[in-house]
Amino acid sequence: MAGDTTPQWLRPLEAAAGPRYLQIVNLIEGAVEDGSLRPGDRLPPQRSLAELLDVDLTTVTRAYAEARHRNLLDAVTGRGSFVSARKEQFGPPIDLSMNIPPAPKGVRLAELMQRGIAEVLARSSADLLMTYHVGPGALADRAAGCAWLEPILGRIEPQRLVISPGAQPALVALLTNLAAPGATILTEPLTYPGLLAAARQRGLHVVPVAADGEGILPEALERAAREHGARLLCLTPTIQNPTTITMPEQRRREIARIARAHDLTIIEDDPYSLLAGDAPPPFAVLAPERTYHVSTLSKGLTPGLRTAFVVIPAGAEPDALTSALRALTLMPAPLMTALATHWIRVGAAGDLLKGVREEAAARQVLARAILPASAQAHPNGLHVWQPLPAHWDRYRLIEAVRQQGLGVTPSDAFSVEGRAPDAVRISLGGVPERARLVEALKTLAATLGDQRSRTHVVV
Q1: Which of 75, 197, 284, 424 could serve as a FRET partner for 257 with CA atoms 20 to 30 Å apart?
Q2: What phi and psi, each to the nearest 5 degrees, are found at residue 384?
């Protein structure tokens, strides 16, 4: 680099300073922090910067993409890249804490959405899509939901299915209907944080049921139901969040038998069965007369659809659930529901699910090769449950990896009673690029193996 054309903030790259594209990002970030680059400043064209730094164009392209991911740059088509006016960055640069599906290879979601919405508008009235829609959902949308769930539930009538704007409102609505304030609900010792938040808001007493490597223990469930007089059991039996345990069929049948014996209603939170591809029959099949089955599109397709399907017990009426959902959210977004229905009908949803499953499986292969052997995961899952070695506790680990730009979720977020094991959940879907994910996992694995942590004290 030389001459008057070299920006003042540029420095030569160093062979031993890590990946060159990340060095470029760090130069940009440092220049923004010290004021050498200000919001609105235009960066050199990628080809020019590659020549100045004596690197290939791909390296600079990757650096600019990472800088945009960190909210350092904005790209304006036809004009170039500019320093972003958004100075605040929420969360760590590499987020392994958010459980979202990875972008599948060969699928351009923006193009899929544009084409899908255009096709929806060609077949529907825009005025109708932009008005209020109350009730359990249009018959066509409910029928599409039934078709989507048929691989795991078999044929069900649309009258048993209610459309919800995501699984979280559905869980809140179900707890509102099925448990009076102060009532006891039973669940796994570690469970979905959204369920815990909903239970707290409702004023419910959540009791953990002892579990092993196959899920909650039948004898522990029977004892808890008898001692606490509980009438509600909430479970995620497939790729459990966070432990990744999938309850085998025989255990499910034992739990269903106990639920009948103690008149327990089951809320089955099931975001992963279609993604897993090998799940045993759900409780909605084994105990259909007492199971509310909640299945969201957020984990298998994309969270932005804000669409979930709730299958109510055979013989039940949807009115109470519909009323509770209406009080919470009024209605699902009609355009998103219509898009989800269209994708299901034309096969796009199935193709997207297949792509997500394949990408998740590829990322799990990478994780198995990098993380310690103690890591637990399903081959098609979105996350890994990582027990910590004896020389780490979760609080020091979280701080250590945060200082290295990584974010993971500690076990405390999932603990029912506040007594959590030293473990973290590692989500694999939120990092756009596999190469970037590999770097993050290697950093995490190296940190886990660092024996020097024995002497570290965080105050």
Answers
A1: 197
A2: -125, 140
